Amino acid sequence: MNEFELIARLTRSLPTDPSVVLGAGDDCAAVDLGVPDRWVLFKTDAVVEGVHFTSDIDPARVGHKALARCLSDFAAMAGTPTHAVVTVGLPGDSRAEFVEAAYEGLTRLAERYSVAVVGGETTRNPEHVFLSISAIGTVRKDRCVRRSGAEPGDALFVTGALGGSIAGKHLDFEPRLEEAQWLAGSFDVHAMIDLSDGLAGDLQHITRASQVGADLLKSAIPISRAARLLARASANGDTAVAGLPKRPPPAIVAALTDGEDFELLFTVASRDAVPLLDAWKKKFPKLPLGCIGKISAEPGVRLRDEHGIRTLTEHGFVHFA
After folding, report:
1. Can you spell out the DSSP letters for 45-108?
2. What is the fold of 155-311?
3. Distance CA 67, CA 72 (A)
4. In terms of C-beta density within 10 A (0-12 exposed, 13-18 middle, 19 or more buried), how is residue 315 classed?
5. How far apart are CA 188 and CA 143, in angstroms?
6. pTM metric for this prediction
7. Cα separation of 160 and 277, whole Å?
8. Which residues pair with 271 in a beta bridge?
9. Distance between CA 11 and CA 24 in Å, rounded?
C-alpha cells in the first residue's frame, strides 16, 4: 500500500472527543480547548537521512528544514505556531557537532517566527539520522482555512514558482506564514494547502476533501528557474547535474510533480481574483502569485494545453509507492 492508503487504514477508528474540531486529514489537527476565539493547532513532521536529506548536507540546513516543514503546515491553515519539541534519532557513531549544528539551523528559524523550543527526546537509531518536530499553535476560529472548503467556480492560486526543489530549495525554503495569515485576514480563502508532495498530488487533496474537481491551465503554471535549468541540462545529456542520481523530468512535469516546493495552493471566489492580485503585488512585491486554473463541479483534475484538455495522470511524491 502507498502512504495515503496506509494513513486511511490507521486513522479509520482513532479515538476522539468533543473538543476535536479537525482530526486526521488536514494539514494540522485543530482542537477547541476553551481559548477565546481561537483553536489550538497540533502538527508533527520528520526529516530522515536518505529520504529528505543526504549525509553530506550542512546540518544547519537539515535543522532548518525539519522545523520549516512543520511551520509550513501551520501556514496552510493560516495559523500561528508557538511552541515545539524535537526528537532526534542518531546512529551510535554520530558526532555531537552534527546535532549542535542542526539545532543552530533550527533555532535560527524558530527565533525568526517566535517559536519556543521547549524540549524533546533523543534516541539511538541504528542506521540513519532523523529529526522529528512536534509543534502547537493557535488560529483564529474565523480565519482557519481547511482543505475542504473549495467551491465550483473558485479561482485557484499558487505562490512562487514550482519544480526543481532538489537543487536546494527543499532545504532552504521559508514557510509562508506571513503570507497565509495576511490572506486569511484580507480575503475569504475557501481552501488551502502547502505544496509538500507536488502540485498534481496536493491539489487532489483539496478536490477530494471538497468533493469538487479542478481545471489547470498549463501555460499559467509557474515553473522555477531551477526546474528549467535541470530539464535543459538533462536534454543536453548531462544526467549528473547538481548531483542528481537520475534523469530530471521535463520542466512542466517537474512543476506538477516535484515535492517540497512548500508554496501555498489556495482557492478564492472568482470575484476576488483581480482584487487579490492587485493587493498581493503591493503587499508582497518580491513573491509572485499566479492564478493557475479554477475549481469545477466535475470530479477529477484536468490540464488544458495547446492540444486541448486531458485528465491529469501525473501525481506528486508518495511514500511507499
Report:
1. EEEEBTTTB-TTS-HHHHHHHHHHHHHHHHHHTT-EEEEEEEEEEE-TT--HHHHHHHHHHHHH
2. Phosphoribosyl-aminoimidazole Synthetase; Chain A, domain 2 (3.90.650)
3. 9
4. middle
5. 8
6. 0.93
7. 13
8. none
9. 7
Reported CATH class of domain 3-140: alpha beta
Task: Cell numbers for 112, please give them.
Answer: 525568526
Q: What is the DSSP letter of 19?
A: T
Q: Residues spanned by CATH 3.30.1330.10 within the chain?
A: 3-140
**Angle subtended at Cα 136 by Cα 132 and Cα 140, rounded to the nearest 5 degrees:** 145
pLDDT in tens, 28-48: 999 999 999 999 999 999 999
Give residues with Cβ within 8 angstroms of 182, minimum separation 6. Answer: 283, 284
pLDDT tens for each residue of 281-302: 999 999 999 999 999 999 999 9
Q: What 8-state DSSP symbol labels residue 142?
A: T
- Measure Cα distances from 108 to 41, 130, 170 in Å: 22, 19, 17
Q: Which of 119, 139, 184, 164 is nearest to 262 (CA)?
A: 164
Distances (CA, A) of 120 to 79, 89, 218, 228: 22, 11, 44, 40
- Between CA 217 and CA 105 the distance in angstroms is 38
Task: For 49-105, write each residue's pLDDT tens digit.
Answer: 999 999 999 999 999 999 999 999 999 999 999 999 999 999 988 888 999 999 999
Rounded-to-integer distance, Cα 135 and Cα 74, Å: 9
Task: Give bridge partners of residue 80 from the DSSP assignment.
Answer: 138
Q: Where in the chain is the domain with CATH 3.90.650.10?
A: 155-311
- The residue behind cell 482584487 is 275
Three-state secondary-structure class, residue 251? helix
